[in-house]
Amino acid sequence: MKKFRFVLLIAIGVLFAGIADAQATRTWVSGVGDDVNPCSRTAPCKTFAGAISKTATNGEINCLDPGGFGAVTITKSITIDCSTDFGSILSSGTNGIVINITAAADTKKAVRLRGVSINGAGTGLNGIRILSALSVSVENVTVDGMTSHGISVESNLSPKITVVDSTFRGNTGNGINTFVTTGTVNLSVADAVFSSNNIGINLSGSTKATVRDSSMVNNLTGVTASNADIGVFHCLVSGNSTGFSALAGGNIRLSDNMVTSNTTGLSISGGVIASFGNNMINANTTDGAPNAFGSLN
Length: 297
Description:
Elements: H1 2-21, E1 24-29, H2 48-52, E2 55-63, E3 72-74, E4 78-81, E5 87-90, E6 97-100, E7 110-124, E8 128-132, E9 135-146, E10 151-153, E11 160-164, E12 167-169, E13 174-178, E14 185-190, E15 193-195, E16 199-212, E17 215-217, E18 221-233, E19 236-238, E20 242-246, E21 251-255, E22 258-260, E23 264-268, E24 272-275, E25 280-281, E26 292-293
Parallel strand pairs: 1-2, 2-4, 3-6, 4-7, 5-7, 6-8, 7-9, 8-10, 9-11, 9-12, 10-13, 11-14, 12-15, 13-16, 14-16, 15-17, 16-18, 17-19, 18-20, 18-21, 19-22, 20-23, 21-24, 22-25, 24-26
């Protein structure tokens, strides 16, 4: 009987330990939280890094207040949503968010980021560095003051990247930079602002992209394509040294854009810039001209 009770007590202890260590599908962070907490709504964690270890795959981290929640490495499918209380990451000297999902059991390999400000303070590396993922959605995110890129896409898994209502400004590198050695990046950008970066959007290494209703202003170059294909629709490209640059293997298709007040509007060096005949390319120091034409069918 004593042996039975002893075994029962051990079993109960293991059960409660498992419950205590179980990951929640939804967790919370707060500027006044503590990472020793379970990251519940009433006992939130203080950092994204503290919360992610207590959040289940495909779960969600929410912000209870507009605090600073620290840099984080994401190794599983997850949502970080601070859209109701704008959260921030100060990433001096490091990457703001690194996405590196490699587990075979995690079939989605999907990350969703909403309502986050990432500030490199002039020494940060990349705002969002995507090393391995199938899908990344970036909504209402601001990336500022990085020494490398706002978003660096390096995943060879043919990722689908969606960027909506986001701002990339003051980055020494590029607002969005894609470079992969295998596979194809599929990038969709809408309602975004790229300001005072080296290149607003720099695409290379098998990238297919669309950009609409966005502004590329006051960069060294607005958009560059090299061995990449991009369609740009209804955008403002102004105040850049070069508006559009098509390098070897780069295809840029333009429809209903305003390209004005740049030093050079269109620059072609081995690539193709195709106009659908409804763009305003005017009042640049040198307008440049497309070398191919589409049709408005």
